[in-house]
Every structure is written in C-alpha cells, then in structure tokens.
C-alpha cells in the first residue's frame, strides 16, 4: 500500500426521496416484506446533518446482490485510506491499494457493503494509536460480502458463500490494517458467519459489531429471563439491538429505553415496553429501578441512579461510575451464528439510518454524519463497486 495518498475524486449524488431504513421480517413466502421508517427532508434537496423526523410506511425494496467474478481477483483495488491520524479530511479514496494476501485461516471477501461505528472514528483520530496497527490504514470493522478465496486451513466456508462479520477480533488491540471500507478484505474464518437469508448485504453489514456488543454486554451482566433493563440511547446502533436481544433472546420482563421525541415510536416497534423522551424526562428520577442499565451514550453517573441495589450498569463510553463497568467486545462468528435464527425469523431486525446507505464515494460524508452522534441505528456504505 502506498504511503502517499492521492486526492480522491468524489462525485455528487442527489438526495433520495423518501429516505428510509428497513426493519426486515422473514415470511414463509418467497417475497420478502419490510417495515420501513421513512423521512422526507424539508427545504433544500441537498443532504443535511439536521435531525430528520421519522414516520412508518411499507416498503419491499432491497439492496441488490453484487455481481462477483469468482475467478478474476485483481492485484489492486479501490479503498479508503488514511496515512495520518486526524479529522475526516485525512481520509482519501485510493484506487491503487494492494489487495490483501490471504493467510491459511482466512478468506478473501469481495465487499458488498460495510458499516461505520464510533470506534472507526476514534481509531482514525488516534485515540488508541499505542495499540493500533501501522499506518497507512484502510478503516472499517463491519463487512458483508462474498467469499472469493479461501486459505488452506479454512474448514467451513467456501468460494461463493455470502458472509458477514466484524473483521477485528479485538476492537482496540492491533485491529487489521486492511479494513472493510475497500473492494476486498481478508479476515479469519472464525470471525464470520453466513449472511442471514432474509437480509440483503446492506442490512447484514449494519449488524456485526453492534449485535456482538449488545449480546456480550447482556451476557456479562448475567441478564436472564424475568429481569428488567433500561437502555440509554435505544435508537442507536447498539441500543436498538440491546432492546431486541433483551426481549427476544434473553426473555426480559420489562424493557425501557430512552430517545428523543421523534424516535419514541421506533423504540416501541423494537419491543420497548416503556419509551422515555430524554428531552422531557430524567430517567434517573423514575420511581422504578432496573436490574440492568445498558448505557450506550455515556451517562454512567446518571445510569447508576436508575439501577436496583445489586444490579449492573454497562458503560460503553464516557467516564465509568461504580457499580458501572466497561468492556471491549471480542468478535466471534459463533455469536452471529447463534443469533442468525432470530434474524431469519424476524424476531431481531437490523436498523439502518434513514440517510443511508451512503455510496462508496461518500465515506467521508458518512463519517462526518456518524460523528454528530445523531444517527438512528447503523450508518451503512453500499454499494461497494
């Protein structure tokens, strides 16, 4: 990979109308149906980072499967790269990045879609450079795509399989130099699972890191059937999945969650029994306390006031106040395999931000958006040519 990065050539795209994110359900019929939450921007047609109100409507649109040549793997590819730490401006679209080599226990994926996470931005900003891989870096943790090459020790996956996963086993400890915001990426077989049959690539790409974080966080609290939970930032990438996993997988007796006014209906559609408008109500002042508080926004000092004595508080970001605790997720393909049945049955659904998917040429704009901390669900990049 070159250390000297060319200036990217970006092309503009018209703002779509309406914007929508899909909550996909599996049906016995061959035709997949979706629940979409759409938003129609007001004023100028150009994209804006201002908040977009949501409404519910029906849709059956889906992202098309990529056309993949399984025999002709190029030596160079297009990828987003940064050669120094900093703001969004350090990102460049490089058209001559070497396609990564495949180790014995890895597969090479033709990337169809990728997703952004807060950790992507923090990594690019140099917030854990002491344990980072060398620069220059191709960012990206979440991936969905097609296997085009397998290593000699790969046991289950084969060329042509449609897969998804979080390609970094440890988020902060030596994450891969070649990430998912590229046409190809190499990743260990153990971090991947077959893509759920009812989801398209864009929907699948928005799941891995967030759903693994939600699942591991619940497991670490000892969450189980009959317990109650409060989810802070229930409309975010992780929070939207904590609501669903707590209810559908772990058997929560009650799920409460916070969001802004316009996203309360989304929380209810995901399974929240109590949707709390944080602009009008302080959750810590509620008379009811919870067995677990899952803080996905960085308000641990307030979260500990809403937990029952002896309960647990998971803090994903910000300062940690006892009895709160933090963990760094470990990527495991086995977790995705375990949850695939819930995804394919429609009990657990991906939530994609209504401003996306962003095209591959607008990864820098997608980063600017996710760094506003106003995204709903996941910010997805699709298609990747």
UniProtKB/TrEMBL annotation:
<dbReference type="GO" id="GO:0008270">
    <property type="term" value="F:zinc ion binding"/>
</dbReference>
<dbReference type="Pfam" id="PF13602">
    <property type="entry name" value="ADH_zinc_N_2"/>
</dbReference>
<dbReference type="Pfam" id="PF08240">
    <property type="entry name" value="ADH_N"/>
</dbReference>
<feature type="domain" description="Enoyl reductase (ER)">
    <location>
        <begin position="86"/>
        <end position="381"/>
    </location>
</feature>
<dbReference type="InterPro" id="IPR002364">
    <property type="entry name" value="Quin_OxRdtase/zeta-crystal_CS"/>
</dbReference>
<protein>
    <recommendedName>
        <fullName>Enoyl reductase (ER) domain-containing protein</fullName>
    </recommendedName>
</protein>
<dbReference type="InterPro" id="IPR020843">
    <property type="entry name" value="ER"/>
</dbReference>
<dbReference type="GO" id="GO:0016628">
    <property type="term" value="F:oxidoreductase activity, acting on the CH-CH group of donors, NAD or NADP as acceptor"/>
</dbReference>
<keyword id="KW-0560">Oxidoreductase</keyword>
<dbReference type="InterPro" id="IPR044626">
    <property type="entry name" value="AOR-like"/>
</dbReference>
<keyword id="KW-0520">NAD</keyword>
<dbReference type="InterPro" id="IPR013154">
    <property type="entry name" value="ADH-like_N"/>
</dbReference>
<comment type="similarity">
    <text>Belongs to the zinc-containing alcohol dehydrogenase family. Quinone oxidoreductase subfamily.</text>
</comment>
<dbReference type="InterPro" id="IPR011032">
    <property type="entry name" value="GroES-like_sf"/>
</dbReference>
<dbReference type="InterPro" id="IPR036291">
    <property type="entry name" value="NAD(P)-bd_dom_sf"/>
</dbReference>
């Amino acid at each position: 990979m070159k250390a000297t990065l060319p200036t990217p050539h970006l092309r503009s795209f018209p703002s779509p109308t309406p914007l929508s994110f899909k909550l996909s359900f599996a049906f016995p019929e061959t035709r997949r149906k979706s629940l979409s939450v759409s938003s129609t921007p007001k004023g100028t047609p150009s994209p804006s980072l201002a908040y977009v109100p949501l409404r519910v409507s029906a849709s059956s649109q889906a992202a098309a499967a990529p056309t993949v040549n399984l025999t002709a793997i190029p030596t160079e590819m297009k990828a987003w790269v940064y050669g120094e730490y900093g703001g969004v401006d350090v990102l460049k679209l490089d058209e001559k990045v070497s396609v990564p080599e495949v180790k014995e226990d890895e597969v090479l994926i033709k990337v169809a879609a990728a997703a952004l996470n807060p950790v992507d931005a923090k990594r690019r900003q140099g917030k854990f450079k002491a344990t980072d891989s060398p620069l220059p870096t191709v960012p990206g943790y979440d991936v969905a795509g097609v296997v085009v090459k397998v290593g000699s020790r790969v046991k289950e996956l084969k060329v042509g399989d449609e897969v998804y996963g979080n390609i970094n086993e440890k988020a902060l400890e030596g994450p891969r130099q070649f990430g998912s915001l590229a046409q190809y990426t190499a990743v260990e077989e153990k971090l991947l699972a077959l893509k759920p049959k009812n989801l398209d690539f864009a929907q699948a790409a928005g799941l891995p890191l967030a759903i693994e974080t939600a699942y591991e966080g619940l497991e670490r609290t000892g969450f189980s059937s009959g317990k109650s939970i409060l989810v802070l930032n229930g409309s975010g990438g992780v929070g939207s999945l904590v609501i669903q996993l707590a209810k559908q997988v772990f058997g929560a007796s009650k799920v409460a969650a916070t969001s802004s006014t316009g996203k309360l209906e989304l929380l209810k559609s995901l399974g929240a029994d109590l949707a709390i408008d944080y602009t009008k109500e302080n959750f810590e002042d509620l008379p009811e306390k919870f067995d677990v508080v899952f803080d996905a926004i960085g308000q641990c000092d307030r979260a500990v006031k809403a937990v029952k004595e002896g309960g647990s508080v998971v803090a994903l970001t910000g300062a940690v106040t006892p009895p709160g605790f933090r963990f760094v997720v470990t990527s495991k393909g086995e977790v995705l395999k375990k949850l695939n049945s819930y995804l394919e049955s429609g009990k657990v659904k991906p939530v994609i931000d209504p401003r996306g998917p962003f095209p591959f040429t607008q990864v820098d704009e997608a980063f600017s958006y996710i760094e506003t901390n106003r995204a709903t669900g996941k910010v997805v990049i699709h298609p990747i040519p």
